[in-house]
Each structure stands twice: as structure tokens, then as C-alpha cells.
Amino acid sequence: MSTPPGEGGIGIVRVSGPEAIRMTHAIFVSTTGRDIRTSPGRVFHGEVRAAAGILDEVLVHVMRAPHSYTGEDVIEINGHGGAAPLQAILESVLAQGARLARPGEFTLRAFLNGRIDLVQAEAVIDRIRAQSQAALRAASTAASGRLSREIRALNETLVGALAHVEASIDFPDEDLPELVNETLRIRLEGAHEHMIELLRTAESGRRYREGARIAIVGRPNAGKSSLFNAMLREARAIVTAQPGTTRDLLEETCVVGGVPVRLADTAGLRHARDEAEQAGVRAARAAMGQAEAVLLVVDGSESDGPENAVLAEDALALDAPSIAVVNKIDLPHARAFQADWLGRFKTVCAVSSVTGEGIVALEEAIAQLLLGANAVTPEQALITRAHQRDSLRRAADALDRLLAHYDASPEFLSLDLREAIAALGEITGETTSEEILDRIFAQFCIGK
Ligand SMILES: Nc1nc2c(ncn2[C@@H]2O[C@H](COP(=O)(O)OP(=O)(O)O)[C@@H](O)[C@H]2O)c(=O)[nH]1
Ligand SMILES: [Mg+2]
Questions:
Q1: Ligand 1, residues 216, 219, 221, 277: which to mutate, most atoms within 8 A of Cβ?
Q2: Which CATH class is domain 8-100?
Q3: pTM value > 0.90
């Protein structure tokens, strides 16, 4: 079944493999009497029938190999989207000898049949899981083969170099002309540089996929929940004039300056009055420790207190960058908010979470902080996963070694080249171990 269980307008049973068309033919009666095995058509209206009678009225899609998702013959039976009709269709196909697909098996077949590579297969999961338009665009870029093409081009350069190097092992007397050597070195240097460039996209790439974690912290009543709501453009967190209301950690996904973000509203940091609040304060501290950026919110309408200085100290001590947010600038005196610690923050933003003033500027500052100098767009080739980054790192390291000892014997050069080629192959799936493939495809849902 390709649609999740439950009620829906339509439900789809997908069958893939050399027997798919025959099996469907055995249970399907087309309205116009056409035979799906021989008719050139691609979409057929009719009924799924069993010995018991008509099971459902359906549309059958016929996609012949290799022009299908898996690269095999694929049939999609579109029935009514309730549990009973879908179950009935599914069972009648199973009765013809089909078996249930494992999670991700359709995509795995597409991969094994060479229709897509591993980068594209993983992009399928990312498309399904995308939490924002930016994440979806990044996944679509990967699915279209952007990164795959760049990896393949790198691979071709290395394979070409390997051929030269191995020729000089086999025919040691025929020294390579100096010019060939030099051209080769320049090409390998170019490949190395390209790898480093791609590696630079890893951090942003991961953020496009997963979203960057941002924690909003500060004293009770500073306006953290109000800021959280203002950035989400909806009232998600409860806002009260009563300090200590937010006790749980609230997390929501949103897009900030084009970057998908997982925004966390936290309990106000103070000496908790009861156990629930204590737990909230602990969660807030943990969120602060895990965040990739921290927003320290202060109430600008109040004069600064010693607790703010302590929080500022904590925030500045983190590896993650932080922004000081002076909130409530719609109130008197807030624009003139002063504090010694304020000057130690590289970025200070003045906002009103109530009127919305300054929120866009704050969001731009956050995006700037997250993307930094390595600004990338979701339309370029991006390294989005840890295993891609690790493999590329190993390939780059091998090339680095090779270039450092370019005058070494060809046997050594060949070793380094082979290592780099194997590492690149892990990204596209050519040299990925079975175990890792299993792990990757197990993340899929059934029906994909
Ligand atoms: N005037 C004004 N009031 C605000 C602003 N932000 C929050 N407040 C008020 O400050 C109080 C505490 O806000 P809340 O978001 O619950 O603070 P938290 O405890 O830090 O989550 C509430 O009464 C809010 O309406 C602001 O920008 N301007
Ligand atoms: Mg709150």
C-alpha cells in the first residue's frame, strides 16, 4: 500500500516487478473491455473483482519498465481510500502471489536497478519529511541529481588519474612526459578544491534538512513566549503577565530568513518555585546547551538586574553564537535600555513582540548568524548528511596526502586514488556496504 492506513479520498496499492501486470490483469476488469497486458493505454477504469464479487471501483495506472519509479513494471491501483476497500484490493493482489513490500523497498529497487543513486534515494526521504519549503527545495535539488553529478565528475577525474598512474606501474620504463604529470596534478588539485567547497556546504546542508535549533532563553516575563509566537506568526505558546507560566519546552518548526529552524520556547530561568518549574528550568538549560544559536531575551522596559548578567555570561560561554534581544520597545524607556553586559554581544536586536517591530531584522540577523560566510542556497549541490560528509572528508584527505607526496612512487599514488574513489562511491551508493544500505532504507515508510 502506498498510502497510509486510514480514511482518505483515494488509496493506492502499488505493485512492482515483472509479474505486476499479469497479477493485476487477473483481478481487474476494465470498463471498456481493454486488456492491460496488451493495450497501449496507461490508465484504465474498471473494477477489482474476486470470487465474492466486485471489491472496488478503481483506476489502474500501468507504467512499463524502465519508465517507472522502480524501473520495473509498476501498477498502481487507485481505489477508494478507506481501510476496507484497500485491504480487499491488497489481499486479492497478494492472492495472485505478490508479497508485501518492506519499508523503502520500492525506492531500494529504483536504486538497485540504477534508476537513481543513493543521494537521490535519500532525497526521497527528505522530500517526504521536509518541514519547510526550503527543506523541500534542498531535497528536490538533491533528487534532481545536482550533487550526484558533481560527485560523478569528481570520480571521473580520479579514475582518469588512476589510469595514468597504473599505466606507469605496468610500464615503468615509459616515463610519463612531464607535461602529462603536470596537467594531472593541476586537475587533481582542482578536484581537491571542489571537494573542500562541497564540504563547506555540510553545515548549511544539514540545517536545510533538519532545521537549526534555536533556543529562546531569558528571565521569566521577559517576553520569550511572546517572541516565540511572533516568530511563528501564530499564538502557540501561552503568554501571561504571571511569571513562570511556560514550564515545558515548546518546539516548533519555522523558516527564518530562508533557513528552516526548530525554535524552542523555554521556561524562564530563575530559582524555580516548585518542582514543575524546576523541571522546566532544567529543560531550558539543556535546550540552551544543544542550540545552534541562542536568543537571550530581556525586558527592556525594566531596569537591568543582576540575573540578566548571569544569563548573559552563560549564553556567551556557549560554543553557539547568541543574540541579545531587548524586548518590549513599544513601552516607555525600553529603547534606552542599558546594561554593562550588552556590549559583549556581537548582535543586539531591539524588538516588540507585541507590535512586531524589529522582528524581521532579528530574523535576518539569525539567518546571517546561521549561514555566516558560507551562505548557500537550497538550489546548489549540498552535503546534507553526516555519512556523505564523512565519506567526502576521507576522499579529500586521501587527495591531500597524494598531492603532498606527488613525487612518491606510483604505487603510493594509486593507493590514495583508490581510497578517494571508494569514498566517493559511498556517497552515490556504488561502494556502500550492504549494512549501511539496509540502515538507510529502513528509515523509509512502507509504500515508498
Ligand atoms: N508591551 C509589551 N508587552 C510584552 C511584549 N512582549 C511580551 N509582553 C508581555 O509581557 C508579559 C510576559 O510575556 P511572556 O511572553 O509570557 O513572557 P515569558 O515569561 O518570557 O515567556 C505578558 O504580559 C506579555 O503580554 C512586548 O513586546 N511589548
Ligand atoms: Mg513563557
A1: 221
A2: alpha beta
A3: no
